[in-house]
């Protein structure tokens, strides 16, 4: 639950409720956001499947810290893969998305 702030208006005795100002969203184009989401999701799932098929390695142990490190590493790899080759994978999907929503 967010607290509301009282802000004075032009009249000194009157107060109005004003919601707190939200942080402005990052300035990403629709295409970049689409590519990041679709390709990022694809690569994350691909890396997750690859990790489960390999089994555990005896070199680094099977602790919680290792699992967190692998998840973070896979997330970074997925982001890099999406940034470098995401457009080639999502071109047809983006065109279909644009046709349905009226974006070009």
Automatic annotation (TrEMBL):
Residues 1-28 are annotated as: Disordered. Residues 1-19 have a biased composition (Polar residues). Pfam families: Rod-binding. InterPro entries: Flagellar_prot_FlgJ_N. Residues 48-88 form the Flagellar protein FlgJ N-terminal domain. This is Rod binding protein. It comes from Alienimonas californiensis.
């Amino acid at each position: 639950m967010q607290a509301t702030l009282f802000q004075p208006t032009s009249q000194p005795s009157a107060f109005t409720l004003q919601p707190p100002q939200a942080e402005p969203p990052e300035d990403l184009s629709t295409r970049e956001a689409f590519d990041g989401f679709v390709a990022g999701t694809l690569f994350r799932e691909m890396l997750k499947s690859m990790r489960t098929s390999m089994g555990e390695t005896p070199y680094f142990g099977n602790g919680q810290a290792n699992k967190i490190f692998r998840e973070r590493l896979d997330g970074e790899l997925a982001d890099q893969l999406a940034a470098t080759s995401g457009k080639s994978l999502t071109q047809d999907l983006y065109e279909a998305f644009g046709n349905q929503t009226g974006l070009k």
